Amino acid sequence: MVAPAGRGQGWDMRASVCIPTHNSARYVQECIDTVLAQTYQDFELVISDDASTDATCDIVRGFSDPRIRLHRLERNVGMAANFNHASSLARGEYIKFLCHDDLLDPACLAQQVAVLDENPGAVLATTGLRFVDASGGTIRTSSWIKRRCLLGHAELVAGTLIYGNIVGPPSAVLIRRSALLEAGPFSADLPQFLDVDLWLRLAVLGPVGYLPEPLCGFRLHAQMRTNQLRREGLIRQDVLRITQTMLGSVAPSALVRCVAWGRVAGSFLKQALAGLRHGYLQWPLSALWQACRVDPAFIGLFLHQALFRTGLLGFTVREGRVLEVCPGRTLRIRE
Fold first, then answer.
1. Distance CA 80, CA 183 (A)
2. Is the Cβ–Cβ distance between 42 and 14 less than 8 Å?
3. Which residue ranges in the chain fall short of pLDDT 70?
4. How does DSSP classify residue 40?
5. What is the pLDDT of residue 8?
6. In 3-state terms, what secondary structure has residue 138?
7. pLDDT tens digits, residue range 20-60?
8. For an engineered disulfide with 93, which of 8, 38, 70, 172 has Cβ 3.0 to 4.6 Å away?
9. pLDDT digits (tens, 9 = 90+) for 118-165
10. Closest residue by Cα to residue 308 from 148, 140, 158, 141
11. Which residues fall within 8 angstroms of residue 139, CB to CB, at 6 or more apart?
């Protein structure tokens, strides 16, 4: 069933799907096809191309749908600036960023629009993920929370401190445009966690709607930018800054802090081992040293892996944004 079309007050259309591209010829056609196949049809599709040197723009121009608008930047400006440029062109009440190599389930827009329509205070709606391979085949699905719900800022911090980015990548999210304008744009200072940084800033303004259904296809392939950043050891400062920001935004107990920094130490150790496998030496040794500094005896890492990742213990939010340890999984989050 096609969702009824409508106009938000003062908006040209209800939703803007923004696809930032750069040398995206391999996947962009399939990505666009999944947007055009949405059951919800009151949208525009904005494509901001970051000075591609391949056939990306030719492929986009091959579509005849009048809702598609292509804007090509004359020089390469990078991921954050291209995402922000795409959103600056959007005319919808809601904005959905969609990475050029990802996919949408046909019901994705309809269900996410419904969440924001039904919860006027919610700043964004996100969904579970379907991980796909380079050919689009499903590898696995993942939903952090078992039921549809609204997460407050402190609850989001609690889940993220233990499990990482529970909101998901940009492709999983539909954002209320007014909230995005108030929270500010993606930050170029966080190459790996520019999305987590924005989700946390948005969550200060209102709750996050969560849909457990895997309505977004997140593609895993060898050319992913994340893989390159990890191989070159370029995400450790992002991890430190995001963790410091989250701990500073709530009132964590001493044990919560210990476990949070243990998770950071584990991340640094994992990155160091990956760097050594790829033939690097200097930055992996630096990562090992940083792991020892943030969690000197690796007590936090042990607790995180043995008790919190397994779900025996979790974090709970008390009055006054206080985070404490509790029995059972954080927010009933699951793997």
1. 15
2. yes
3. 1-12, 223-234, 334-335
4. -
5. 47
6. strand
7. 999 999 999 999 999 999 999 999 999 999 999 999 999 99
8. 8
9. 999 999 999 999 999 999 899 999 998 989 999 999 999 999 999 999
10. 158
11. 131, 132, 133, 220
Q: How far is CA 234 from the centre of its chain?
A: 18
Tokens of 271: 């990155």
pLDDT of residue 335: 44
Reading the block at residue 288, the tokens are: 């090992």
Q: Of the candidates 149, 209, 156, 158, which has an alpha carbon nearest to the alpha carbon of residue 179? A: 209
Q: What type of residue is 230?
A: R
- Which CATH fold would you assign to the domain 13-223? Spore Coat Polysaccharide Biosynthesis Protein SpsA; Chain A (3.90.550)
Using DSSP, state whether 135 is helix, strand or coil. Answer: coil
As a residue count, the chain comes to 335
CA dist 236 → 185, 241, 269, 277 (Å): 22, 9, 11, 17
- State the alpha helices, DSSP H only, in 4-152: 28-36, 56-61, 79-89, 108-118
Cβ atoms within 10 Å, residue 228: 11
